[in-house]
Write a structure and sequence with these properties.
Largest sheet: none
Radius of gyration: 19 Å
Shape: elongated
Helix content: 40-55%
Structural class: mainly alpha
Distance between the termini: 56 Å
Number of strands: 0
Order of helices and strands: HHHHH
């Protein structure tokens, strides 16, 4: 039996996550924070949209056109403003909470 060799793609050392995937991917801290918030809003909206039988029904519920629902379900963060995501969460009666903390002293 022939086994296909697999390249070693795992780093010799692992880096502990910052807690923000976007920062870990190299985005500057401000952009990473915005993307993290947007992705959390998008995750909630995606779950809401998933409760409908069709994207058209979800679009009607949220008062938008179906292509906007497609952008939500495909995770197109760049096509969706934070303001829009917050408004859609409000229309969907998704409870939003803001948790802001000062950094701890080093």
């Amino acid at each position: 039996m022939y086994t296909i060799p697999t390249p070693s793609i795992m780093p010799a050392q692992f880096k502990r996550s910052s807690g923000n995937l976007f920062e870990d991917l190299g985005f500057d801290p401000e952009e990473a924070a915005l993307l993290k918030v947007k992705s959390q809003l998008l995750e909630a909206l995606t779950a809401y949209v998933g409760q409908f039988d069709s994207q058209a029904a979800a679009a009607e519920s949220l008062g938008v056109k179906q292509p906007r629902i497609s952008e939500i379900t495909t995770g197109k963060l760049s096509a969706l403003s934070t303001d829009l995501l917050i408004r859609l969460c409000d229309r969907a009666a998704i409870e939003l909470r803001v948790d802001a903390e000062l950094p701890t002293a080093a």
